Amino acid sequence: MNLQDQVTSLELSKKLKELGVKQESLFWWKKYDGNFIVNDIPRDGDDECYSAFSTSELGEIILRLNWHEIYVPYTEEWHEIIKQLDIFAQSPGRNEANDRAEVIIYLLENKLITL
Questions:
Q1: Do strands 49-51 and 35-39 pair parallel, antiparallel, or not at all (unpaired)?
Q2: Are 87 and 50 in contact (CB under 8 A)?
Q3: Of 35, 43, 37, 56, which is closest to residue 17 (Cα–Cα)?
Q4: What's the rounded Cα separation, in Å, for the pair 113 and 71?
Q5: Which residue(s) pair with 49 in the sheet?
Q6: What is the 8-class DSSP label of residue 42?
Q7: What confidence score (pLDDT) does residue 59 get?
Q8: How many CB atoms lie within 10 A of CB 4?
Q9: What does the alpha-carbon distance between residue 99 and residue 41 come to, in Å, rounded to a whole number?
Q10: How far apart are CA 82 and CA 6, in angstroms?
Q11: DSSP string, 59-77
Q12: Cβ–Cβ < 8 Å for 52, 60
């Protein structure tokens, strides 16, 4: 399995940065010769550098949230996100890091959590 299949996609990594998620990860999306690649070279202040979060790193972010104080209204979109997480183990080829990122993005965009 390739490294980019084990971390958040470039698109989701950009969205997480835009929403204020601290850029603290082991791997990074960084632009080289006009293309973005994932590597473990530490971030050097480059604006076109985005944390490529692993499943475990996103799990740590999720664990730090106080879920008992979050009211999540039942919506079809939220239901779909939960459904995707529930069937993750049954869906080969899916990327769990992206699934977790989508949940965090949903919560941030809908102001259900703050960082």
A1: unpaired
A2: no
A3: 43
A4: 9
A5: 30
A6: P
A7: 87
A8: 16
A9: 25
A10: 20
A11: HHHHHHS-GGG------HH
A12: no
Selection from 71, 74, 77 nearest residue 103 by Cα? 77
Lowest mean pLDDT among 67-71, 74-78, 108-112: 67-71
CA dist., res. 109 & res. 38, Å (int): 26
pLDDT tens digits for 21-70?
999 999 999 988 889 999 887 666 667 899 999 999 998 888 777 555 56
List the structure tokens of 111. Answer: 């102001």
Q: 14-50: string of b/e by CB count within 10 Å (b at 16+)?
A: bbbbeeebeeebebbbbeeeeebebeeeeeeeeeebb
**Is 25:60 a contact under the CB 8 Å cutoff?**
no
